[in-house]
């Protein structure tokens, strides 16, 4: 109540002086302590929050234009901020597109005209085109600056007076070095120099930088050394993608390396917008757990790098060490370096222990020149040169961590790693038809025209490899599914549903994971060295008897083909192949077999482990079994196998699997508890009293129970996450 009203009230009611104080106190508002938190929050919100007027906010948005010296990315950030209060809803993308095109600076009029001519223009297309044209303009300025810089370096032998005189010419722009305009109309007159941090010019013509170059040239008397730097524009669709524009820049004596990680504000330039070839990304396994990491091969980067985000998520077991390295982007900006780590690196058949620089942020992973000097990269794929593999290529795995004697063992048994195999000797598979069934003949399926050439080449290869042979007619035929492989080729898989219904079962029990792990610690001895041997095209190595050929006839666009060997998709294939491999390897201690994976686990170090490998190699060579050298791992102290990590300490879950459980959302309907329990059940052996603890969640799966997420369900849900996230998730081999 205003004080004037209070005074009027006192006079009108003839209140004496003794009662004025009590009357005034009674007019005070309520004490804040008497209000609830919700009410106080509501009052504060009503007091401080003003509802924006949509028409006024939209007026600000539609009148916004790109300012002088403002980049496209900065302009877009400003537009998005203005649009946040305009209530555009589903129209947001179109509004941003329209204002971006309409509000471009006059210097980008050519870009604007081009965008206005596109009939189906999207926001993404407009943004990428603007960024690309802006980058092209900057590259042109940088080129002009480099020319000016070269002139300055050549003139180092001249007197300082002449250099200063040339730098003060009236017809030369002081902001960018151009001879076509003055600094008053230069687009870089408000730019900040990446060398001296002053406004008004760019780095190539920075006087402070040129003076330092002249001083170094006079003091050393030697030609200044150069290092390569590159401009890498990140691609959203690939972890390690970037675009390189290599140039020569003077090397700062305090900097060990320069490399590129160029970003344009909050948005990133896409590969398609520059009409360039996408960068070459390789899959590298890092650390003892062999975590897959996509890295871009960058010959312009002196050091290989990984982001702090990747380090925290996957490589935090390796301590960060200090490193005296300064990294700069193409534009001269420093990239914050956290330090370096030393990690095991595996690329295809090569294994090394190398240094890896950790940088701040979520930047692409780079495969730099330091790693290229140690690792042989498949350059044929880099340049897209398709080279046909030789008929009998031998791919022997190599690693610096292998014992010296093991290389002789590999050389002795090198034919195990031949890419051409004539099939397993001494064994044949067989398919038996149920009594009274009739043959089934199914027509072929169409193939996309883009895959026709690859499909036909694969059939030719299979015929040449003595796996298939053509026939003119057959009572049996199955259609084909073509599955793309990681190397770009195709795998021919028969759809044998009709055949599977008509052949007899062949039962041979596969060892489960618990049985295999229990066998690892025979006589109470804990293994400390592990290897896993992977078979090449496992089922296709086993010949069938002639009666079974006709059952595996496939119907293709090239006609009918019959298979001489066991195929993927046949319901008895796994059992038959497991029986054959068990017969080949039976009697060798410390060996566990599951279909096409042979697990070796020994104690006592390298020597006993090598003896077991020799025995296995001998048996496999005797029966002409071929191996996939790319997937074999030897002499590992820690091995990732079937979702588990094996080591001398015991068996633990794979970290990535546990992260999926830890990040699983709280179930909100009947279907979600089943998915969560499916993930957790795989590791139930790691949890004591698992069934009783998870009973409330199992109750939700009962059809008789209505959906109710109770307090008991919440406790079980959080308990499972906590216990699997703890460091105590470890079991011994012999339970």
TrEMBL record:
<feature type="region of interest" description="Disordered">
    <location>
        <begin position="217"/>
        <end position="247"/>
    </location>
</feature>
<dbReference type="InterPro" id="IPR050951">
    <property type="entry name" value="Retrovirus_Pol_polyprotein"/>
</dbReference>
<feature type="domain" description="Reverse transcriptase">
    <location>
        <begin position="464"/>
        <end position="646"/>
    </location>
</feature>
<dbReference type="InterPro" id="IPR000477">
    <property type="entry name" value="RT_dom"/>
</dbReference>
<protein>
    <recommendedName>
        <fullName>Reverse transcriptase domain-containing protein</fullName>
    </recommendedName>
</protein>
<dbReference type="InterPro" id="IPR021109">
    <property type="entry name" value="Peptidase_aspartic_dom_sf"/>
</dbReference>
<dbReference type="InterPro" id="IPR043128">
    <property type="entry name" value="Rev_trsase/Diguanyl_cyclase"/>
</dbReference>
<dbReference type="Pfam" id="PF00078">
    <property type="entry name" value="RVT_1"/>
</dbReference>
<dbReference type="InterPro" id="IPR043502">
    <property type="entry name" value="DNA/RNA_pol_sf"/>
</dbReference>
